[in-house]
Amino acid sequence: MSEVSTIQLTNFGKLLLEKGITKRQLAKHLGMHENGMIRVLSNPDIKRSRLLQIAECLNETLATLEALVYHSKLQSQQIQDAAAEERTAIVEAVAEPPAVIAEQVSDASESDAVNSDTILPLLAEILNLQKQIEALLKQIVVQIISG
């Protein structure tokens, strides 16, 4: 199920809960099977005629249900945009190490007096960055798998 479908089904679920009606009851009222009702409620391209039937059953306006569908699509797009921004930030962070570290490494390599006092803090910072990158990559994989 796509992200927008999941969000939309969740939003319809909240509305049904507020109305005290189950998906099964709604499906029965509309002469459908519960699984068919779930497919209808999760369809981002739900037909206006079906929305009107649902609105009548729930004693809601068509505009309310159309707004619910619209907001579900908007929420999904916002999540996708945020994920894309996060991926871009990760790629940029991986592509360019922080200037301070790069400068310190460059300075240390040019110096004849390279010692553990210079190298150990740099290695610790590099290890910290590596851990951050690994955590961010795991988040990306989870997002890709889940949606």
Q: Flag low-confidence runs.
A: none
The radius of gyration over CA amounts to 26 Å
Number of strands: 0
Overall shape: it is rod-shaped
Structural class of the helices, strands and pairings?
Answer: mainly alpha
- Mean pLDDT, as a whole number? 81
Q: Sketch the topology as an H/E string, one letter per element.
A: HHHHHHH
Strand content: under 5%
Task: Report the end-to-end length measured between terminal Cα atoms.
Answer: 8 Å
Enumerate how many helices there are, as a single number: 7
- Helix coverage percent of residues? over 70%
Largest sheet: none
How does this model look, in words?
By secondary structure, the chain is mainly α. It is built from seven helices and no strands. The chain has helices at residues 3-19, 23-29, 34-42, 48-58, 62-95, 99-110, 116-146. α1 runs antiparallel to α5 and α4 (48-58) packs across α5 (62-95). The longest helix has 34 residues, at 62-95. The chain is rod-shaped and about 80 Å long.
Brief summary of the model shown:
The chain has seven helices and no strands. With 147 residues, the chain is an all-alpha fold.
Quick tags:
rod-shaped; 7 helices; mainly alpha; 147 residues
Outline the fold blueprint.
Layout: H1 3-19, H2 23-29, H3 34-42, H4 48-58, H5 62-95, H6 99-110, H7 116-146
